[in-house]
């Protein structure tokens, strides 16, 4: 599935995995941050050729390695972008040695973020903002976060396009066509002089 947006927000594990599967292509290099014991990393590994799961817990990473010995897991803090880029560079080296690869990717094509669906909003927002800034513009970022998704649903970007219904007059927002607006004043003037008729 091709989508224009870089960041995709999900509120549940089911939606997160479905969304992730829909944006991953077979030749993508994929990173999962917060891979825990590796179940989602394993599920996504069946949809792409290259994936690495990272978690800051050494114990969790060891459990994931035992559970899925054919996959790559690293003990890395999600905020350590330099270490994550080292993982990407290692994948690029592996790709460059593979006869099956068309060529190394420029970093990760998809980054999956699951540091807990109810992790604090400031933590998730900071992490997503960091990845948005540090990873290439075409990297898709799929995030599981109840709070971030809820906040974004309550947001509306201000659009200063000409079709915007708000006009700024003397410091007071006036809706176009409403009493007191420039359009309403012009209509009233036209009516008073007998103008505006067919």
Structure description:
39% of the residues lie in helices and 17% in strands. The longest helix has 16 residues. The strands form two sheets. The chain has a six-stranded parallel sheet with strand order 1-6-5-2-3-4, with helices on both faces. A two-stranded antiparallel sheet has the order 7-8. The protein has seven helices and eight strands; from the N terminus they run E-H-E-H-E-H-E-H-E-H-E-H-E-E-H.
Instruction: Give a quick account of the main beta sheet: strands, pairing sense, barrel closure.
Output: 6 strands, parallel
What is the tally of helical segments? 7
Beta-strand content: 15-25%
Count of β-strands: 8
Order of helices and strands: EHEHEHEHEHEHEEH
Secondary-structure content class: alpha/beta
Inertia-based shape? globular
Helix content: 25-40%
